[in-house]
Specification:
The protein is of the alpha/beta class. The protein has 2 domains: 216 residues, Rossmann fold (3-Layer(aba) Sandwich); 148 residues, 3-Layer(aba) Sandwich (Rossmann fold). It is built from 15 helices and 16 strands. The protein has a 6-stranded parallel sheet with strand order 12-11-10-13-14-15, sandwiched between helices. A 4-stranded parallel sheet has the order 5-4-3-6. Strands 2-1-16 form a 3-stranded antiparallel sheet, with no helix packed on it.
Length: 394
Amino acid sequence: MKKVLFDSDRHMTIQRPYRVAVVHPSAGVNWSGGTENFAIEITHRLSSDFEMELLAGAPCSPFYYPAGGVPRVKARHILQNAVINSLLGKFFTHPDIVIEHLTSFLPCASRLLKRPADLIFPCNDYGGLAMAAFVRKLTGTPILFKAHTGLTNGGRSLARSLRFRPNHLVVFSQTMAEFATGLHPNQAVTIIPNGVDIEWFKPEGSRIDVGLPKPIALCVATLNRSDHKRVELAMRAIANLPGVSLLLCGDGPDRHYFQTLGDELLGAKRFAIKTVPFDQMPDVYRSADVFTLPSIDEPFGQAYVQAMACGLPVVATDDEIRRYIVADAGILCDVTDVDVYAATIAAALSRDWKMQPQENAMRFSWDIVALHYRDLIMQMISQSQKPSSLSNQL
């Protein structure tokens, strides 16, 4: 996808690819986060159509450029200082994310002003969106924003982000689209699901020895007691199934708490916590027998799709978005009832799911999802470009 520029010195037209800047200061630092991995993947997927740059926290892509600032993972080390944690905790629910947003604002904005893009795609929630809105005010560069947080917390996060009025909003469902246009009737909205690389996440391939007896239930989540993942519910449900082990894959500020609780509820022989790089996640999924994540709400639930692509049935909370994602590739239930939750996991383990999980995951193939983004970005750039004496619209 190219734009035509007129070089007055050479008296000739030059074709250059449109430039798209993806922003996520934690990408390359936190490999267990869905938004970070999305930023890396979408940059890679669009690189054949656009000149891509990923403003990230650490080298993680051929298109990487330092975002600057303090990524949220490293900010947690700063917050180990009791004084700093107490001060910021009085004003912010997630002070680690606030630190990331504040410290990366100027470095990212400076980069985008020095080397302008044709479109900015912030992936780190309202902090990146605020930075992009600042750059747009000075340059007119359009903003594509994906509502990764969905309608969590009653939609408050999405409502906050919409105050910055992105040029186009991507959501996961019709319900989200209606919520956004209810707040801002003129907001442009497109529904695009998350994608999964079905050539990478698949049943065939290597596995890892996690040191647990089978069958193994897998839960992938950030280890934070204050978030919406409700990992404890999965731990208590598996504790009611003496013949089942639980592998908890992730990291976070409360890792020690979950390790202690797991040892207490299940014992060291039936419980383990592993933190692995994202590129090893297919091996982790293939090493388990069922996937479960009992979060109270889920904007989309990338881990569900990845698990299904690797052939795992899913046991999860019964709500609208998970009915759409899981469909007939798992069982949904009231996860707050530990007995019901445990019985549902047992039922999922006892059933022969054949190819159902993998076939269901095909609906979310990155090949399909990337085409939707490519077309949307081209439409946005075309609408924003204005003919002048120095440039002409194709």
